[in-house]
Amino acid sequence: MAESEQQSGASPEDDRPPIPVSFNYIVPKKEISMVPDMGKWKRSQAYADYMGFVLTLNEGVKGKKLTCEYPVSETVEKLLSLLGTLDRWIDETPPVDQPSRFGNKAYRTWYAKLDQEAEALVSAVLPPDLSAAAPEIAVYLKEAVGNSTRIDYGTGHEAAFAAFLCCLCKVGALRVEDRLAIIFKVFDRYLRVMRKLQKTYRMEPAGSQGVWGLDDFQFLPFIWGSSQLIDQQNLTREETKLLFFSSTNHPTLEPRHFVEEKVVNEYHQDYMFLECIKFINEMKTGPFAEHSNQLWNISAVPSWSKVNQGLIRMYKAECLEKFPVIQHFKFGSLLSIQPVKP
Questions:
Q1: 331 in helix, strand or coil?
Q2: Pairing state of beta strands 204-205 and 330-331?
Q3: Helix (H) or strand (E) holding 39
Q4: Kind of pairing, strands 204-205 and 152-153?
Q5: How many CB atoms lie within 10 A of CB 176?
Q6: Model confidence pLDDT, tens digit, residues 193-228
Q7: Are strands 29-30 and 330-331 parallel, antiparallel or unpaired?
Q8: What is the pTM of this model?
Q9: pLDDT per position as a tens digit, 228-283
Q10: Which of 21, 43, 175, 330 has the largest count of CB atoms under 10 Å?
């Protein structure tokens, strides 16, 4: 794993027996209503399963480019179709004229479509024998696209999409061979749809720490993206030449390179981390060190392995251990609030 500690939890690697037909699914609900409840979350099976999922995928993408070859299963294709539907609905729901610059109310119309169709969309992804799981899993999909009241989006919504994928792994719809496709196809497509939502409806960052946060909207692609950059394969002669004309002639991408716009523009199609930096560069103006201070500091870390380990620790501390984020997380039968069994 990316950290010395091992997480017991759900992952696409689990060779678990199939969930019985008579399994009682539960529509997820909030369980963390006060700060003292955070202990229940950290001891829960849900926390173990969620972190196990994140870390297993983190290990799976290590040293691999977005453009590498990997199998794409029928379930992955169905998930891409689902995300394509959400994308199309944005085109069909243009922003409305309103006095306020941020939080375009057309987003609520878009969200109402998802709220109405979520179970059907999830049922179309699941095999027929798992159709009973659709109402439970669909809750995480609805939670993954932002808040329709505040018209905002943040790392808690991103976590709900990871939970959605984790649940699909737990019921066996996604399997070990889908590991790379889960991030490189499905999560990458999800990010593109979320960026389109953010830009189209001028969504506010949920719980943003401003310049002191890692990013206004996302966190997981920085973790998985930094893992991609560990143990990189040798670059081609053309790629090495590009780096020679940047600030270094070292034949691999180092953390200090991602603040160079030329390097980002050249490699963003291969690395999720650089794709995130490219989006920040498009959305923000001024010196990078001023609008993205945390990322600027990370560029001084000597290796991608240390960046990756540091981001995992930061994710736990700044997202998973923060009450304002976790109070919105929902628990059911697949991601249970019950404590991990010894």
A1: strand
A2: unpaired
A3: helix 38-43
A4: parallel
A5: 13
A6: 999 999 999 999 987 655 456 777 899 999 999 999
A7: antiparallel
A8: 0.89
A9: 999 775 555 565 555 544 444 335 889 988 988 898 998 999 999 999 999 888 88
A10: 330
